[in-house]
Design a protein that fits this description.
Length: 251
């Protein structure tokens, strides 16, 4: 991991695909980070990053990563949500090719707080962040009640969904895209992906593990790298994008 981060930073490699790790085992070995995401962000010198779960059907990001549920409320803030929205829009444009991405933001509490009856984080933290983001030109809406948002078809109408915490975003994502999903760390100077599952110790040695998510992680890393390079090329020379569109190479 140290060598991979070093090689990615100096441009010797184009990206990193990490295998699942057991966070408890890593902790026992003296690894001081909650996971790969935090480790690579530290090595890259990035204060903020964004965990993005992506598939062909759905793109979900989280405001907090590997944080115990009891600590989520105190971790979120207007400033943090705004920063995550900024990173999310940037990656939707540069890494996923969305020209004008629409982002939905989920609430923290059941029914998005029911106007304060079930918690006030939506009114005091989340909604003010959304309003400020809108004023800055972002296409962002919410806060939405998470269960209703995924229970209907609203999730199909947006380019990205920002959840407040890990399970709020990953449970619906894995229900919809398990086996085809990829974890992508946005905000780094290099590309990093991983499969959307854990170590599966319960089936180790039985030759029955499904490699599809890991294959998707490899292919997704290549796609993101190529999209990022294409975006940089288009920015440097806008005529390049016009020529691609005329040739039908860019939708």
């Amino acid at each position: 991991m140290e060598k991979a981060a070093e090689d990615a930073k100096n441009g010797s490699i184009d990206g990193i695909v990490t295998a699942p790790i057991n966070k408890y085992a890593m902790k026992l070995s003296g690894f001081s980070f909650p996971g790969h995401t935090e480790f690579l962000a530290d090595k890259d010198g990035k204060k903020e990053n964004l965990m993005v779960l992506c598939s062909d059907q759905l793109i979900v990001a989280t405001v907090t990563n590997h944080v115990p549920i009891k600590d989520v409320s105190e971790k979120i803030s207007k400033e943090l949500i705004l920063k995550k929205i900024q990173i999310f829009q940037k990656t939707l444009i540069e890494n996923f090719g969305k020209d004008k991405p629409v982002i939905a933001v989920l609430g923290l509490n059941p029914h998005a707080g029911d106007e304060g009856a079930l918690g006030n984080e939506e009114e005091t933290i989340i909604r003010p962040a959304i309003i400020e983001a809108k004023k800055s030109g972002y296409f962002v809406a919410g806060p939405f009640s998470a269960d209703a948002f995924f229970g209907g078809d609203k999730w199909t109408k947006v380019d990205g969904i920002l959840a407040m915490y890990h399970d709020q975003g990953l449970i619906p994502f894995k229900t919809i895209s398990f086996g085809e999903g990829t974890n992508f760390t946005a905000g780094l100077s290099f590309v990093r992906t991983s499969p959307d599952h854990g170590t599966a110790y319960d089936i180790a040695g039985q030759n029955i593990a499904n490699p599809s998510s890991f294959l998707h992680a490899i292919y997704r890393a290549m796609d993101i790298f190529n999209t990022k390079n294409g975006y940089a090329e288009d920015r440097a020379n806008p005529l390049t994008k016009i020529k691609k569109q005329a040739a039908g190479l860019d939708d």
